[in-house]
Amino acid sequence: MRRVLIGLALLFALLFLVLPLAVVFAGAFAKGWGAFATALAVPDTRHALFLTLLVTAVTVPVNVVFGLAFAWLVTRFRFRGRAFLLTLLDIPFAVSPVIAGLLYLLLYSENAPLGAWFAARGWQLMFAVPGIVLVTVFVTCPFVARELVPFMQQHGAAEEEAAVVLGASPWQLWRRITLPTILWPLLYGVALTNARAVGEFGAVSVVSGNIRGATMTLPLNVELLYQDYQAAAAFASAMLLVCIALATLVLKAWVARHEEHV
Question: For residues 230 and 236, what is the distance between their CA atoms, to the nearest angstrom?
Fold first, then answer.
């Protein structure tokens, strides 16, 4: 029975995980290294990669700040509505990204009252980079908090309370007690946030407008190239996403392994 289960697990991993990755790499280099390099040198593809990294670079710090504040609030204080607040954190998991993108479009487009207020002050949110950042922050906001909350609940606040009694300042408390304690769960949440932000498609496709060279992220670029019958270029862009994802997985595995030994 053990061998059967191991065989089924390996077969599943081969068919649903390894084989698709192999197809992506094979498709990227189907026409040789020259065609691969040419596909990545296209200005629209380079801009899509830059925009993806830019959105991720903004999203991750925002969610780190939010996750830290949220975890600190719900683990160090008791207040009415705490359970409801924890439930609200799971909304991005429960709501389809496409629905989330549509809701943001209805709220922040120039035809909506809130969007019109921003537009009157020269701030275009939808069909622009700010809109992409907004929806990406929404779909990735639970990851850091969800890693920190159970860890901080289990670890308790005894060390922090002792440091306060001994006269530690807020900065000393954060730098010497809190940060070293939560560092590895925090890095784990950052890795998950980064992976989700890089690959986000549904919500971004709704609010970006799919404008070439302006609001086209790398996942959107893959779809557009494939629809234009540029399969090799689409696979080349997809390979960039795969490489970023694999690098994130390596980081996540390293963090998880280190956390087990702490």
Answer: 10
**Is pTM beyond 0.70 here?**
yes
- Cα dihedral angle (146, 150, 152, 156), rounded to 10 degrees? 160
pLDDT at 101: 92
Distance separating alpha carbons of residues 68 and 73, to the nearest angstrom: 8
Q: HSE on the CB side for 194, CA within 13 Å?
A: 20
CB 220 within 8 A of CB 51: no
pLDDT digits (tens, 9 = 90+) for 176-223: 888 888 888 898 899 889 989 998 999 999 999 888 888 999 999 999
Q: Collapse the DSSP code of 87 into the 3-class scheme (helix H, G, I; strand E, B; otherwise coil) and give the result.
A: helix
How long, in residues, is the chain?
262
Q: Are 156 and 178 within 8 A, CB to CB?
A: no
